[in-house]
Amino acid sequence: MFRLLRRRTFAREAKSCAVYFRGDAIYVISQSLTNHGRVAKDPMVKLPKTAAAFDLGRAVLDALAAFSAVDGLPPPTHLADFLRFVGAPSWRKFATGTLEIAVTFDGRELHLRPSRADSKGAFLYEESFTACRPEPATLGVQVLALAADG
């Protein structure tokens, strides 16, 4: 039996980003850690579902490099900015049918956790993860393999 985690239970000191597979696109979203949890921020990248593994891995590593911890509240437009970028009218409509791979970096290795949203649009994660080296090609191959299994 595995335990499900919400994103806010991930280690606070770990850098993170999100990779979403939706329709014919892959979205790589940078994040900020605020007093209300992790929120989307620029840069946000859209790749075709046919993107090369190296390009996907490079986009994920760039998103992790842009991670920031902010003491305070997120910008009030952070969700609207994200939804506009992905072309969705609401979080629930975006999350429905979307596969997310949460990527965290503890300074040594990357941890990849795939998830699908529940009926309310909340992504829940298994406690177990796939470990990966922070190299673009290796990372891209691992993310694409998890997406194929998901």
- What Rg is obtained from the alpha carbons, in whole angstroms? 14 Å
Morphology: globular
N-to-C CA distance: 18 Å
Order of helices and strands: EEEEHEHHEEEEH
Task: Give me the secondary-structure category.
Answer: alpha+beta
Strand content bin: 35-45%
Tell me roughly what share of residues is in helical segments.
25-40%
Number of extended strands: 9
The biggest sheet amounts to: 7 strands, mixed
* SS summary, helix count: 4
Mean pLDDT: 87
Q: What are the salient characteristics of this protein?
A:
globular; 150 residues; alpha+beta; single chain; 9 strands
Topology readout:
Elements lengths: L3 E2 L9 E8 L2 E10 L2 E12 L4 H13 L2 E2 L8 H9 L4 H5 L3 E7 L4 E7 L8 E2 L3 E3 L3 H14 L1
Parallel strand pairs: 3-5
Antiparallel strand pairs: 1-8, 2-3, 2-6, 3-4, 6-7, 7-9
Helix pairs in contact: 1-4
Tell me what you see in this structure.
The chain is of the alpha+beta class. It is about 25% helix and about 35% strand. It contains 4 helices and 9 strands; from the N terminus they run E-E-E-E-H-E-H-H-E-E-E-E-H. A hairpin with a 2-residue loop joins strand 2 and strand 3 (about 25-35). The two termini are about 20 Å apart.
Short recap of the structure:
With 150 residues, this protein is of the alpha+beta class.
